[in-house]
What we know:
Elements: H1 21-40, H2 82-123, H3 128-139, H4 151-179, H5 187-245, E1 256-260, E2 268-271, E3 280-288, E4 296-303, E5 306-314, E6 321-324, E7 327-330, E8 341-348, E9 353-358, E10 361-366, E11 380-383, E12 402-410, H6 416-423, E13 441-444, E14 448-451, H7 455-460
Antiparallel strand pairs: 1-12, 1-14, 2-11, 2-13, 3-8, 3-12, 4-5, 4-11, 5-6, 6-7, 8-9, 9-10
Amino acid sequence: QRGGRLCPRPGVPSEPSSRSPAGMLPVVAGLLLAVAAGGRGAPGDPESPPGSRFVCTSLPLDAAGAGCPLPPVPMQGGALSPEEELKATVLQLRETVLQQKETIGSQREAIRELTGKLSRCESADGKSDTGTWKKELGRGKDTMGDLPRDPAQVIDQLSRTMQTLKDRLESLEHQLRANVSYAALPNDLREMLQRRLGDLERQLLSKVAELEDEKSLLHNETSAHRHRTETALNALLERVSELEKGNSAFKSPDEFKVSLPLRTNYLYGKVKKSLPELYAFTVCLWLRSSASPGIGTPFSYAVPGQANEIVLIEWGNNPIELLINDKVAQLPLFISDGKWHHVCITWTTRDGMWEAFQDGEKLGTGENLAPWHPIKPGGVLILGQEQDTVGGRFDATQAFVGEMSQFNIWDRVLKAEDIMNIANCSTNMPGNIIPWVDNNVDVFGGATKWPVETCEERLLDL
C-alpha cells in the first residue's frame, strides 16, 4: 500500500480494507502464498504450529524504522523464511509505489507548465509581431531617438522609417488574414491596434512638421549670421588696409604726436577727413606748449564762406577762446606751462551751450555761442594754424608752438565721466567722426611725427 508497510500477526483476523481492488491484487497474491507455506509448516519446527494464519495491517511511514514485531524464524539451508519473504515483497511494493508517485508528480508539473505556456501563447496571438517591431523600432539606428543633426537627412530618414513601418503593418495584416480572419479578432484587440497605429502616425507627422519648422528657422538664422559675419569681415579688411597704408614706424596707429617747434606760417598738419553737418560735437586732445605770449592755434576748421567755423586759439595776452561761426566764448583754461594737458570742448546748437574741461575737470560752461547754428560740412581741418581762407593764408603770429596728440572729434556731447576716464587713461575712446590715426594726418613745412609718450607718462607730467 502507498505510505505504509505490511506486518504479519498470527491468530488475528484480517481487517477490512478500503483500498481499491486493483491495487490490492499483488498484495493478496503474496499473502496467499505466504499463508499456504505457513499452513504446511516444517517438520520438527515448534515455532510454526499447523493452521497458523497471517493478517496484513497498513502502518504509517514513520513506523517503518521501528520494524514489525515478528517472531524469530530459524534459517534453513540459507533460504528465506516466509515472513522475511513477505517483508521483502512488501518493501519492494512500497518502493515501486513511491517511485510512481514521484513520476506522477513530475509529470503533473510538466503538464502545468505546458498548459501555462499554451495559455500565454493563445492570449498573445496577434500581439507578438507588434511587440517585435516595437522593440526593433526602439533600438534601431534610424529612429526618432537617434536622428542625425542635418534636418534634410532627418526628414529623409523619417520618410524611410515611416515606409518601413507601413510595410511591416501590411505584412502583419497579411499574416493575420492568413492565420485567422481580421474580423474574427476580438473587438478590443482590433480597436487597440487601430488606436496605436493612428497614434504612431500622428507622432511621426508631428515630428516631421517640427523638423521642417526648425529647418526653416535655422536657414533664416544662418543667413542673418552670414550677413553679420560678412559685415564684420569687411570692416576688419578696411581697417587692415588702413593700417597697411599708414606709417609703420609706430607700434599702434594712434601712438604718435605732431611736433610744431617753430612759430611760422608754413608748419602745420592737415586732417584728411572732413566734418559732416553737426548739431553737437566734442573735441578732445592732448597738448604741450610753453610758447609766450599765447600758445597760438591748436586747430581750426574753415568752410566756404566762413573761415572761423570752429577755432580754438590763444593769441597774444588774450585768454583761450572758442569760436563757432565767428562767435566767441572765452574759456578758463591754463595750459602754457610746458606740461602735457588733456583738453576737451563740448558744444551743442541747442541754446549754444558749451563746456570746457582741463585734465578731466570741468572748469567752465556757458551758452548763446552760435545758438541754433549747425556746423557746416565739407570744410578743411588744420592743426597748428588759423585759416583766413579755406586751407590757407596762415598768420605766423597765430601759429601753435608745441606738441599735440590724440586729437578726436565726436558728433555728440560726451558725458563728464567719459571725459574723466579718457583724461585719467582708464578708457581709450577714439572719435567716431575724426579718430586720431596716423594715416589720417599729413604734416607739412617741417612739422614732424614722433612716437608719443604713453598715456600714463603724460599723466605723470601734469
